[in-house]
Amino acid sequence: MEKKLKVRFAPSPTGPFHIGGARSALFNWLVARHANGTFLVRIEDTDLKRSSRESEENIKESMKWLGLDWDEGIDVGGENGPYRQTERLEIYKKEVQRLLDEGKAYYCYCSEDELEASRQKQLAAGETPVYDDHCRHLTEEQVAQYKAEGRKPVIRLKVRKEGSFAFDDMVRGHVEFQASGVGDFIIVKSDGIPVYNFAVVIDDSLMGVTHVIRAEEHLSNTPRQLAIYEALGYPVPKFGHISLILGADHKKMSKRHGATSVTEYKNMGYLPDAVVNYLALLGWAPKGEQEIFTREELIKQFSMKRVSSNDAVFDIEKLNWINFQYMKKLSPEELLELTLPFIADAGYVTLPLAEEKKAWLTRVVWYVRDHLYYGAQAPENVNLFFEDLPEITDAETLDIMKQPTSREIIEKFADALEKLEVFDESSVKKCFSSLMKETGIKGKSAFEPVRIVLTGVTHGPGLYDMIVLFGREKTLARLRNGVKYC
Prior knowledge:
mainly alpha; three-stranded parallel β-sheet; 20 helices; 10% strand
């Protein structure tokens, strides 16, 4: 009977949750959900200097925001815990001792200077630098001498010199590394903490992971991990190494390309479903032309067979377009909920809102919705309703205001609006239409001067909606003030 699929995401908590880590987590999650398998999350925190609980919390919160729930692991529990590497040191210690007892590992007392001298010698000879096996067969006298000198040993794995370490990668096909280029590498540091490659093999094995899907940067770790699997006698999982995410300049994504952490996108008012949709397309090519996917569609269609080995390029414009598609599906109330924190931070409103103010602001945000690609853009689009108009200085705009009919249409429109009994969109529209018939001023000659004195620009969303949202008093004030440009 085939073993049930089990994948894992095992981040190191050394900083904010990066968009590349989120893509790796998503691919694992999709594979697990597609196959009705298990998605496990554990924390690899053996880098004691750089790891922090703050980063761990950021990773977990970001995953929860993205909707990437896990079935086993940190905070969730399971039969294979604990799920932090620093809480599993006794487990690693037993496996290290087994390798020492079986003669598959040994203590190494070489100093940094000695190792560097050996490395330089090999480089000078045109060889690939690997450990020179100096401590592989130490005598008891040599060990005693090193101990007397106060040297703290590391532990190295004995790696065979012949043959190769090969595997069939889910993304890259057959991959092979010559064993002679691996060398006896360190599995436990001098402080007793196991290195990443050693701990990860034990964790994946004891936790029953069947498929390891991770970033391409781990590809070079794989031969060492295969050597550890071999030494411990553990079954080897199926590997899949997904490409790097590059910036638009095809260099590794960094701060210069914009936001790199999931939290930054959350804080800018992107929608988690849109971010998930976009990340799924970074390296995965679905069948057909479809680009907008529900989670259910992603789960149904996702396959590692359609994941490309080519580097993925992060395109913020594409993310914005996808997020815009999701924004359009929000109700007026949902759109306000998304944008309100940004509008409040801009100082335009004070929370909590009175019901009447909330209803009005819901309409304002809905009015500008076609200009919102993410929540943080709300203030720059609703500022018209909260700030005084700056003086008009643009020559082209002023020329429009100097047209002979501009003053007439503005003044007569103000007079007509003042007399309206009902101030709603239908009444305002009817009023302006009647005015155009009465004066014979039509098209741009009618609309542009009015819009300029109300907004400062010649184009924008619906004029009548905007006037109603302004309210009679504000509209009349701007119209009357605007004739000074005529």
